[in-house]
Amino acid sequence: MHQHITIKDQKIFIEGCDALTLAQTYKTPLYVLSETTIREKFREIRTQFLEKHPNTIAAYASKAFLTTAFVKIVAQEGFHMDVVSGGELFTALNAQFPMERIIFHGNNKSKEELEMAVLNKVGRIVVDNTHELEVLASIAKAHQIEMNILFRITPGVNSSTHDYIATGKKDSKFGISLDDFVIMPAIETAIKAPFLNFLGFHFHVGSQIFDHTSHVVATQIALDLIKRVKADYNYDITELNTGGGFGIKYTDTCTPQSIGYFTDAIVDTIDQYCMANHLVRPKICIEPGRFIVGEAGTTLYTVGSVKDIKDLKTYVAVDGGMTDNIRPALYQAKYTALLANKPLDPAAGEVTLCGKCCESGDLLVEHLPLPKATSGDVVAVFSTGAYNYSMASHYNKHVVPAVVLVSGANAYEIVERETYEDLVRHDVIPPHLNQI
Questions:
Q1: Rounded to whole angstroms, how far apart are CA atoms 355 and 337?
Q2: Neighbouring-strand partners of residue 253
Q3: H helical segments located in 163-254
Q4: Residue range 119-127: mean pLDDT, rounded
Q5: Which of 180, 309, 343, 416 is most buried, by the most CB atoms less than 10 A from its CB?
Q6: Angle at 274 between CA 273 and CA 275, to 5 degrees
Q7: Please, which residues bridge with residue 298 across strands?
Q8: Count of Cβ atoms closer than 10 Å to residue 197 Cβ
């Protein structure tokens, strides 16, 4: 159980808010975020990384969860923020986030997105491929605006995680290959480009990782490249972005580490290498996303039908599913859950918590120990802060749930629940289809 979740008088409280009251007030499905937990994660990163190690920055990976209100929290905490699309950049602009603290990622940024980034003078653009390098150089020159850039490299490191969230492998869709005939000409072009300020390199080895080995190995590979750039071009790399991917607790089988477990190993590797090879020690950046918001989230559902198949399984169906949490269907993600109105009742057996979408794979939690569930019960699924709301869809024309931020005994709606009218708001009927 997470620190912000408590049980009193047969009720689940998220911080000081009764989950059943939240469900009744804002309806279900409902995303609930603990502001205290979020800020504690920012504080952990500040204490164990930013204040402990000089010349460091930390950016929130906004793809994990992004709303205008959340951008305000990131700004208040003084962190940088990485975005991967024009939409995410627009959300940051809409919240008046400082553009100099934006890091713009993405493996296929459009010309329009790059122009948007240049005209708004974002702090850094992480160039993902040589085509993008050419397009960005042209845009920066046309507008006479110098842009700070890094290259995303593919370190060829395998991580112990699901294939769909392992991003550092040699055959990844992300990043510039380290083959000499690819990376070295790109580096030379970046160094010589008149309106590009080449800062260094970025890598990301994957997500939901509990061992720092892959981060350290990828860091060593990047350092070898930094050493070669210095030898070949007499050019000092001043920044190395080591990404994120730090694991969190979804179930009791997860063994999350503190942020310092990862960052101490990364920083020590860089410090020792640079000292031994007489290199300028670069600024070190990390980009946690799930680590900050994942455990802060709880999703509340209401039970509808219960289907008991004798000697096989029991399905407990809720009023949400893969449209508000695609992760179990996408890469077999595991969660834990309780009945919010019966949290202390003993389990009557294992059930399959399923959604209401027309897909057999719409299963939220399998083999879930649960008391006897009946229609109207409220289910609380934990650690749903990351990649749930941000990956929500309108499949089967379901509406996207509301998002509530709780702080102590106060609850604030930061995203309104969609309506059926929202689902057809952008539909257009050609004139000939209106003919009777």
A1: 14
A2: none
A3: 180-192, 213-233
A4: 98
A5: 343
A6: 95
A7: 32, 382
A8: 14
**Rounded mean pLDDT of 97-103?**
98
d(CA 300, CA 302): 7
CB 298 within 8 Å of CB 381: yes
Going by their DSSP bridges, the two strands 30-34 and 239-241 should be labelled as unpaired
Token pair 């229609």 is found at: 375
**Which amino acid type is present at position 376?**
G
The angle that helices 68-77 and 86-94 make with each other, rounded to 10 degrees, is 70
Name the E strands within 110-190: 124-127, 147-152
Q: Where would I find the beta strands (DSSP E) of 262-328? A: 283-286, 297-309, 313-318
Q: For the full predicted model, state whether its pTM sits above 0.85.
A: yes
Tell me the pLDDT tens digit for each residue of 2-21.
889 999 999 999 999 999 99
Rounded Cα distance between 221 and 146, Å, is 28
How far, in Å, are 315, 319, 322, 373, 395 from residue 305 at the CA level? 8, 10, 17, 9, 20
Q: Which tokens hold the place of 113?
A: 């997105």
Q: Quick one: how far is CA 418 from the chain centroid?
A: 22
What whole-number distance in Å separates Cα of residue 83 and Cα of residue 71? 11
Q: What is the rounded (10 degree) CA torsion for 239, 244, 246, 249?
A: 150
Q: Using an 8 Å Cβ cutoff, are 292 and 64 in contact?
A: yes
Q: How far is CA 318 from CA 12, 339, 378, 384, in A?
A: 18, 12, 9, 16
Check whether 158 has a pLDDT greater than 70: no
From the list 254, 274, 354, 358, the catalytic residue is 358
- At residue 124, the 3 state secondary structure works out as strand
pLDDT in tens, 29-83: 999 999 999 999 999 999 999 999 999 999 999 999 999 999 999 999 999 999 9
Amino acid at 292: I
User: Is residue 58 within 8 Å of 50, Cβ to Cβ?
Assistant: yes
Enumerate residues 6+ apart whose C-beta is below 8 A from 34: 2, 4, 14, 15, 296, 297, 298, 406
Active site residue 357: no
Which amino acid does the sequence have at 222?
A
Residue corresponding to tokens 């000292």:
275
- Residues recorded for the chain: 436
d(CA 117, CA 113): 6
137, 115 contact by CB (below 8 A): no
Residue with tokens 């209106």: 434
Cα 208 to Cα 327: distance, rounded to the nearest angstrom: 13
